[in-house]
Fold this sequence. Notes:
This protein is α+β, with helices and mostly antiparallel strands. The chain is 25% helix and 25% strand.
Amino acid sequence: xxxxxxxxxxxxxxxxxxxxxxxxxxxxxxxxxxxxxxxxxxxxxxxxxxxxxxxxxxxxxxxxxxxxxxxxxxxxxxxxxxxxxxxxxxxxxxxxxxxxxxxxxxxxxxxxxxxxxxxxxxxxxxxxxxxxxxxxxxxxxxxxxxxxxxxxxxxxxxxxxxxxxxxxxxxxxxxxxxxxxxxxxxxxxxxxxxxxxxxxxxxxxxxxxxxxxxxxxxxxxxxxxxxxxxxxxxxxxxxxxxxxxxxxxxxxxxxxxxxxxxxxxxxxxxxxxxxxxxxxxxxxxxxxxxxxxxxxxxxx
Length: 300
C-alpha cells in the first residue's frame, strides 16, 4: 500500500496507515464525542472493511471520508445496530473541504487494499471491542461486566416489582447467546442479555425482564452502555459453549448477584442512600429500613 506510514488528521480523529491496518486515534477535546474519549484508539485491519466512501460533510466546508466495516466485523457497530448518530460514528473522518482532493486519493488507496471477501459478512470479529471491566448506572440498577460475567444489581427507586422478586442477577457469557442495546437517545432505551434457550417476559417489556436494565435521562449514556454491550457481545461470540465446562442451555441467575467476592462498598452505600430516600418519603417503615440496611451491610 502506497500510504504505509502516512497520517491523515481530521476533526476529532487521526488515521495512521500501516501495512495491514489503519490505526484510528481519537482526540479528547471538549467538543469530541464522549464515546471517542472512551474508545481512545482502534486498530482496524483492512480485511475488516467492505468499502470506503467520500461525501460532503454535514457542516458547510467539510468532507467526510468513511470506511464501512464488513457486517459482523466490529462488535461495537454490531451492538449499535445502526443507532449511532453520524457525529459518534468512529469510522467517519471529517476533513476541511479544501482537502477533498487529498481525501479522494486516500479513499482510492484504501479501496485498493480491500480483501477479496470485502462484500461478505465476517466469520468472526476482526476489530476489538473496548476491553472490560465495564460498569454503568441504568435507571433501575447497576450493570457491570468483568470479562466473564454480567451482573445486574437493582435500585430500590427504579426497579420494578418483577425484578425485585427475581433478585439481583448474574449471567456467565458462556450461558448467553446475544446482547441487545437500544440507545438511550431514543424511546425505551435498554440493554438486555439473552440467555441460551431463555425467553423474555410475556409482554416483552425490559422494565419487567430481569435479564435487562432500563435507561433514562442521565442513565445508560451511549459512551457508557454501548462499549459495555460491545464488550459483552465480543465475549459471547468468542465463547464456544460446547468446549466450556458448566455451559448449559439456560441462565443461572443468582439471587445474590455475587460471584463469590465481596460487594462493592460504593454500590452498597448508594443502595442504602436510596433506601433512606424511600423512608423519608414514607414508602418504607423504620423497621423495614433497619432490616434492609443490615442485609446490605452484611454483603460487605
